[in-house]
Design goal:
With 149 residues, the protein is mainly alpha-helical. It has a single domain, classed as Orthogonal Bundle (Helix Hairpins). Helix 1 runs antiparallel to helix 2. The longest helix is centred in the C-terminal third of the chain and has 84 residues. It is rod-shaped and about 130 Å long. The mean pLDDT is 92. Keywords: Bacterial flagellum biogenesis, Bacterial flagellum protein export, Cell membrane, Chemotaxis, Membrane, Protein transport, Transport. It is found in: Cell membrane. Its main location: membrane.
């Protein structure tokens, strides 16, 4: 006799569970990457702010035009780095959303297999109970017939 449907579907359920676990790991990695990229952006922005404050606190009076030009050039480079990091954060956010949707899809699939197997098991139990009841009824009927004769 072939395996019940619930047993055959357990193979698919197990595979779906593995796929879900892998998607969850990838999602976790994307969260770590996104946090790291956001942190790096925050560091760059904080550095720019501190450097600018320090420059102005040291007093801009008496500063040479070369020093002012050097400061502006350095700030410009930091601004470029900040813009590049914002783009990196944006890419990391998109990657994270993609990984999140992928995990959600895998999770739904796993839950579908879980529910399907539950239904199959309930159905198989009902069928088995009906067959057992038929056997009991047949035995009782056979026992009654042998008494009558």
């Amino acid at each position: 006799m072939s395996k019940p449907k619930s047993e055959r579907f357990k193979v698919l359920q197990k595979l779906a569970g593995r796929n879900e676990s892998l998607a969850a790991q990838n999602l976790g990695l994307s969260v770590g990457n996104l946090d790291a990229q956001r942190s790096r952006l925050s560091e760059l922005q904080k550095f720019r702010e501190e450097y600018t404050q320090q420059f102005y606190q040291s007093g801009t009076s008496g500063i040479t035009s070369i020093a002012m030009q050097s400061f502006q050039q350095f700030i410009s480079q930091i601004d470029v780095a900040i813009q590049q990091q914002k783009q990196t954060v944006s890419v990391a956010e998109q990657d994270h959303q993609s990984k999140k949707h992928n995990w959600e899809d895998k999770h739904k699939k796993t839950r579908i297999y879980d529910k399907t197997i539950e239904r199959f098991v309930v159905n198989e139990n009902e069928v088995r109970e009906e067959l057992e009841q038929v056997e009991v009824d047949d035995r009782n009927n056979a026992h009654i017939k042998t008494r009558e004769t």
